Amino acid sequence: MNQTIETIMNRRSVRSYTVKSIPKEIIRTLIDAGNAAPSGCNAQNWRFVVVESRDFKDKLLSLALPRYKKWMENAPEGLINMRKDIDSACSDPIYYNAPVIVFVIGSGMTSDPDSSMVCENIMLAARSLDIGSCWVYFGQLPIDNQEIRNELELQKDEKVYGPILLGYPKEGFPEPPPKKEAIVKWI
Ligand SMILES: Cc1cc2nc3c(=O)[nH]c(=O)nc-3n(C[C@H](O)[C@H](O)[C@H](O)COP(=O)(O)O)c2cc1C
Prior knowledge:
Elements: H1 3-10, H2 24-35, E1 46-51, H3 54-73, H4 77-89, E2 100-106, H5 111-128, E3 132-135, H6 146-152, E4 159-167
Antiparallel strand pairs: 1-2, 2-4, 3-4
Helix pairs in contact: 1-5, 2-5
This protein binds flavin mononucleotide.
Residues 12-13, 15, 134-138, 176-177 line the site of flavin mononucleotide (FMN).
């Protein structure tokens, strides 16, 4: 295996971070890796909001947590069981007290695949530098709040991807969860 494939194979969703902040130039490198993603017609219709502010992270969590709890009341049993350990392990089951939250914001016809590839590039680049990451869809729960929308400068035609958490793993990179065999038809 070469280094690139090893990085891909060893990327894991990290849900426990140290308080150590990530140097700005490294965050910038990760954003640049995201920015290098392919896009339909090379449109690159995306932008990034990097959140490090304690106050803003607290605001996000205070909005997300009650919504998350309400959402979980009606969640499928499988998900409730999957989340039990996660929820009991920390006070922040949404952003896992990550030092950095990156909102990838995209627009345009191919924004779903484009911006998802941006997110994956960031996560892979992070792994290559021993930085943990996690795509947290629940982290989008507060984005209908006007104050949050204003801060993210979200426009009507824009969608949020991720957000992607970044930070140094507190307990290393977890073991991979069970992965299904690839379903392949050869012709
Ligand atoms: C679209 C998407 C949304 C996700 N949302 C969450 C989330 O809200 N919270 C979380 O802890 N993990 C979330 N994850 C991470 C997945 O749970 C994780 O990728 C999966 O369990 C496989 O583990 P691995 O990333 O270590 O391979 C999300 C992943 C994706 C791709």
